[in-house]
């Protein structure tokens, strides 16, 4: 069992970011973060439109079907700001693994214990973030920069998944995901 667990960890744990990748992420993020609110809202609206089940975790706006109404929801805007601030903290501290781990622990514990969000949504959200950044900032998020972001977000998902396991998260559905 132990060896199998190690093999799974090895497959799911992304390789560390190179210095070049860290610089590319920080440079591209600086441009994205200038439009922090718009980018955050675009990411969450895309998430909720493409993955409606993700809205069920938000009592304040889970009933809103209209995309424009979602975009103007003050609760959605507040959550978008929190998501962007968390990403900003990760990017700003990309060289400080302890700070990154503490942010992931905070986010992971809150989403596992308080909000009971299935961890699969972090993978889904990562894909949406990559999609929106690539579309909204094509001159900044080139394929090479996108690859660095993919690696960073895989690291985030891996870290959050570890926090979920640490707090004893049990799958709420019957899927074996």
UniProtKB/TrEMBL annotation:
It is an enzyme of class 1 (oxidoreductase). Its EC number is 1.15.1.1. The keyword Transport applies. It comes from the Eukaryota. Keywords: Heme, Iron, Metal-binding, Oxygen transport, Transport. Residues 16-165 form the Globin domain. GO terms for molecular function: heme binding; iron ion binding; oxygen binding; oxygen carrier activity; superoxide dismutase activity. The keyword Heme applies. Gene3D superfamilies: Globins. It catalyses: Fe(II)-heme b-[protein] + nitric oxide + O2 = Fe(III)-heme b-[protein] + nitrate; 2 superoxide + 2 H(+) = H2O2 + O2; Fe(III)-heme b-[protein] + nitric oxide + H2O = Fe(II)-heme b-[protein] + nitrite + 2 H(+); H2O2 + AH2 = A + 2 H2O. Belongs to the globin family. This is superoxide dismutase. The lineage of its organism: Eukaryota, Metazoa, Chordata, Craniata, Vertebrata.
């Amino acid at each position: 069992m132990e060896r199998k667990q190690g093999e799974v960890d090895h497959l799911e744990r992304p390789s560390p970011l190179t210095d070049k990748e860290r610089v590319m992420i920080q440079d591209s993020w600086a441009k994205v973060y200038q439009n922090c609110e718009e980018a955050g809202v675009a990411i969450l609206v895309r998430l909720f439109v493409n993955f409606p089940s993700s809205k069920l975790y938000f009592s304040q706006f889970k009933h809103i079907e209209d995309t424009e109404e979602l975009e103007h929801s003050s609760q959605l805007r507040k959550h978008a700001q929190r998501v962007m601030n968390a990403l900003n903290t990760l990017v700003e501290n990309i060289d400080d693994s302890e700070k990154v781990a503490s942010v992931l622990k905070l986010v992971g514990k809150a989403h596992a214990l308080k909000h009971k969000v299935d961890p699969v949504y972090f993978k889904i959200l990562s894909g949406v973030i990559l999609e929106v950044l690539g579309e909204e900032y094509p001159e900044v998020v080139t394929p090479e920069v996108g690859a660095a972001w993919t690696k960073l977000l895989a690291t985030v998902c891996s870290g959050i998944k570890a926090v979920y396991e640490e707090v004893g998260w049990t799958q709420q559905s019957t899927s074996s995901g």
